[in-house]
TrEMBL record:
Domain Methyltransferase stretches: 50-143
Keywords: Methyltransferase, Transferase
Name recorded for this polypeptide: Class I SAM-dependent methyltransferase
GO biological process: methylation
GO terms for MF: methyltransferase activity
Gene3D superfamilies documented for this protein: Vaccinia Virus protein VP39
Pfam families (alphabetical): Methyltransf_25 (PF13649)
Length: 256
């Protein structure tokens, strides 16, 4: 395993016990944590093979399972995977969880209907073309990638006061590691903690993400950007004028 990946895994193992999802009782009652647009873009997943990469403690995987999918979650952190397995058992929801680097998921995860990445996944990817090629190789013809993630503009900007932002990252950083993250950008469980790990992340322009998928042979089916004022807490009304997340659905075409 790459030294940076191993260091990130150790960091995630440290903070995983501090991270919490929704109350298990809510999942047991059939509540899902997916946004309405995610459910709409995914379509009917009943009986479909859905894999989430970088699944953390598994609430989204369990949500896909609630919707009827044969759902699997993959995460770098063995501690997070153990927590996801325990939450699934407590909720009484059937789902599969595996420990692996997202660029190298288990070999049997192939012929997939949907690969899902969400809310803090792309920043851990050192090579977009490698990710896109892996996705294309794992999807069945007609299968799709659904990516819903923090906007790289949010990765590069941080609130300092109302109507005042600071540039804390390079929007065009691409494959250059970003090791000095602003505290507000750290994962839950690391923010404000004196022992916060020094994660290695990457900032990729949205255009690079889209073009990597196209080069891998996927067809763009949906793409949009949107604000989320909560991600710019303290900025004031201007928070609604900034991109906070973006969504891409890309489909592996069926051969003629």
């Amino acid at each position: 395993m790459d030294e940076r990946v191993e260091a990130n895994r150790a960091g995630w193992n440290l903070i995983a016990p501090r991270r919490s999802g929704v109350a298990v009782e809510r999942l047991r009652a059939g509540e899902i944590v997916l946004a309405d647009f995610e459910v709409r873009l995914a379509g009917d997943v009943a009986g479909r093979r859905v894999v989430q990469l970088a699944c953390s403690y598994g609430d989204e995987v369990l949500s896909w399972a609630i919707l009827g999918a044969r759902a699997t979650g993959v995460d770098l952190s063995d501690v997070a995977v153990a927590k996801a397995i325990a939450r699934a058992a407590e909720a009484g929801i059937e789902a599969d969880f595996r420990q692996a680097d997202m660029l190298h998921p288990p070999d049997d995860l192939v012929d997939l209907d949907l690969i899902y990445l969400s809310w803090g996944a792309i920043c851990w990817v050192p090579d977009l073309d490698a990710l896109a090629a892996m996705v294309a190789a794992r999807l069945r013809p007609g299968g799709a990638l659904l990516l819903c993630d923090h906007h790289p503009a949010w990765e590069a900007l941080s609130v300092r006061a109302e109507d005042r932002l600071a540039v804390v990252g390079d929007y065009f950083g691409r494959g250059r590691p970003a090791t000095g993250q602003d505290d507000a950008k750290l994962p839950e469980g690391a923010r404000g903690e004196p022992d916060a790990p020094r994660f290695t992340t990457f900032v990729w322009p949205v255009s690079d993400v889209v073009m990597a998928l196209i080069r891998a042979g996927l067809h763009l089916d949906e793409f949009f950007e949107a604000p989320e004022p909560a991600l710019y807490a303290g900025l004031g009304e201007a928070a609604s004028a900034l991109p906070a997340y973006y969504v891409v659905k890309a489909v592996l075409p069926v051969s003629a």
